[in-house]
Specification:
Elements lengths: L4 H16 L2 H8 L3 E4 L2 H8 L6 H6 L3 E3 L6 E8 L4 E8 L9 H6 L6 H14 L3 E2 L2 E6 L7 E6 L7 H6 L2 H4 L2 H20 L3 E2 L7 E5 L5 E5 L5 E2 L4 H18 L3 H13 L18 H15 L1
Parallel strand pairs: 5-10
Antiparallel strand pairs: 1-6, 2-3, 3-4, 4-7, 6-7, 8-11, 9-10
């Protein structure tokens, strides 16, 4: 808890109020609530399936997918006569009575999981990154946790993690691997240059596809961990965590080395992000080992 007792009491009071708001008031809002559509086409697609309000989306039963979070669920479905595969993330209760300090610091403590996903996708798309298309978000007032977000499936079957794990990356020629390394680094640099960070920056959330000209295009998914409270220290940690997921996927040193060298070459320990100073002398191996241990513990 904080060293300022009054702040702790205020935060606790806000959290308690979120639970004791009269249920009847919530019931009156459940049918209407707040709805945002990504486009007119998205609205028409969902309307054709009767997914026009929060209650209908929460009641919708698609193919369930594994979800380790309590009071949340994920399902997938084929809409529009099988033309569009979508993912639906739902939440109906808070998983924590008292928010975590990192969530308070990052400004995500009082937003639900689906709302954070919607905001993260929008933030990434605004800076020119490819993501799963956000189709719609449904939510009530901030005092209610009932919410859902619908996203379109990305047009790529395998994630970076899977491409490394099944040996696809290892079998690539030197030019293809070099271009893939460049595409990965460009995505990460663009996120941090925009003063954003992403708690879910993992190989499982990068979906690369090679283009006709030999370059790579990368789609991102699961963007609920995007926030704008970025420091030089956090940028370094964010990048270390990503390197850790490369190790977990089984990437070889020839693939990890150039990524690590590029991601840490522009980080100066004495310069606030995103100002770039001269690269400090850094050992590549300590970064990799620390990242691997940290991500392994978090998984």
């Amino acid at each position: 808890m904080s060293n300022v007792p009054n702040l702790d009491y205020a935060l606790l009071l806000i959290t308690v109020l979120a639970y004791i708001v009269p249920k009847q008031s919530n019931m009156n809002r459940r049918r209407s609530g707040h709805i945002e559509f990504g486009s007119t086409a998205a609205r028409d697609l969902l309307a054709a399936e009767g997914l026009t309000d929060l209650q209908a989306v929460l009641a919708f039963e698609g193919k369930p997918l594994p979800c380790r979070h309590p009071f949340k669920s994920i399902c997938t479905a084929e809409l529009g006569g099988g033309r569009q595969r979508v993912f639906i993330k739902k939440q109906w209760r808070r998983s924590r009575v008292v928010p975590r300090w990192p969530d308070l610091i990052h400004g995500t403590a009082f937003h639900t999981w689906p709302v954070c996903e919607w905001r993260g996708l929008q933030q990434f798309r605004r800076i020119g990154l490819d993501t799963a298309e956000p189709l719609a978000v449904f939510y009530n007032a901030w005092t209610s946790c009932r919410s859902a977000v619908v996203t379109a499936a990305v047009p790529v079957e395998k994630s970076l993690h899977e491409l490394i794990d099944d040996g696809t990356v290892g079998r690539m020629d030197s030019a293809a691997r070099t271009m893939l390394v460049d595409a990965i680094c460009v995505v990460i640099e663009r996120i941090h240059d925009a003063r954003l960070a992403w708690r879910s920056m993992k190989t499982k959330h990068f979906f690369p596809r090679r283009q006709d000209d030999g370059s790579w295009r990368i789609w991102l998914i699961d963007c609920e961990g995007v926030h704008g409270r970025v420091t030089n220290h956090y940028v370094g940690r964010n990048r270390q965590e990503f390197l850790g997921t490369l190790h977990i996927a089984g990437a070889d040193a020839d693939f990890i080395g150039p990524i690590e060298q590029r991601l840490f070459a522009d980080l100066s320990p004495d310069t606030p992000w995103p100002d770039r100073g001269a690269a400090g002398e850094r050992s590549a191996e300590p970064h990799s080992r620390a990242a691997g241990r940290e991500v392994a513990r978090s998984d």
